[in-house]
Amino acid sequence: MSAAGAPESSAGERVVSDVVIRVENLTKTYRLGSETVHALRGVNLEIRRNEYVAVMGPSGSGKSTFMNLIGCLDVPSDGQYWLNGQAVAGLGEDQLARIRNREIGFVFQSFNLLPRASALDNVAMPLVYSGVRKRERRERAAVLLDKVGLGARKDHRPNELSGGQRQRVAIARALVTRPALLLADEPTGALDSKTGEEIMALFGELHSQGQTLMLVTHEQDIADHARRILFLKDGVIERDTRRPA
């Protein structure tokens, strides 16, 4: 057994657990010109199924690096990372891409929707890469658009939708693969405060239905919607606070 209670395993081995994220000594160092930057300095953390976690920190704190590592968009310089019971720290790019598509749903500040595709086709897109048949893709996408309140807008393109509606489409797309983790990067950053609150209410509904969520934000009022707040500073977790359910 490891120090954090994780079974020893080789890269890619799955270990059944209710822990969605487990990291041990997660470290990221890179070169910036002649300077060595220590973006993360040995982070240890567990996030269990159905937790709702916000990550905060000042510029340069390591939160973007942390999000990229958790999202399998980058690889650590040292340390271990298990995502939904699978050791991923030593995997190659193709393997990481498959895990991203299967286990993680991404929600971005800028929505990242295909401008010429309908809401339905945008939501269904991740299932194309999973090899799901067209009929099932469209059925699952339609169910999720209903879930986020946009069933009547499924044939609209992004430029025919408001910012809040586009973010709802992006959330539906993030959920369509039934991911273990919904990872949101500044999800209300491009929205006005009222629309932002509506999106946060939707996240709250998803959490109440059992979805594990992690959001990265610099806004305290957005972070306060989460049940747990991690505050990063200088590449380490300075505070880890929990709110009562």
Give the arrangement of secondary structure elements:
Layout: E1 19-32, E2 35-48, E3 52-56, H1 63-70, E4 78-83, E5 86-87, H2 93-103, E6 104-108, H3 119-129, H4 134-147, H5 163-175, E7 181-185, H6 193-208, E8 213-216, H7 220-223, E9 228-233, E10 236-242
Parallel strand pairs: 3-8, 3-9, 6-7, 7-8
Antiparallel strand pairs: 1-2, 1-4, 4-5, 9-10
Relevant terms:
disordered N terminus, Rossmann fold, 31% helix, alpha/beta, six-stranded mixed beta sheet, globular, four-stranded antiparallel beta sheet, 245 residues, single chain
Q: What does this protein structure show overall?
A:
The structure is a single chain. The chain is of the alpha/beta class and 245 residues long. It has a single domain (50-73, 92-242), classed as P-loop containing nucleotide triphosphate hydrolases (Rossmann fold, 3-Layer(aba) Sandwich), CATH 3.40.50.300. Helices cover 31% and strands 28% of the residues. The protein has a six-stranded mixed beta sheet. Helix 4 packs across helix 5 (163-175) and helix 5 (163-175) runs parallel beside helix 6. The longest helix has 16 residues, at 193-208. The chain is globular.
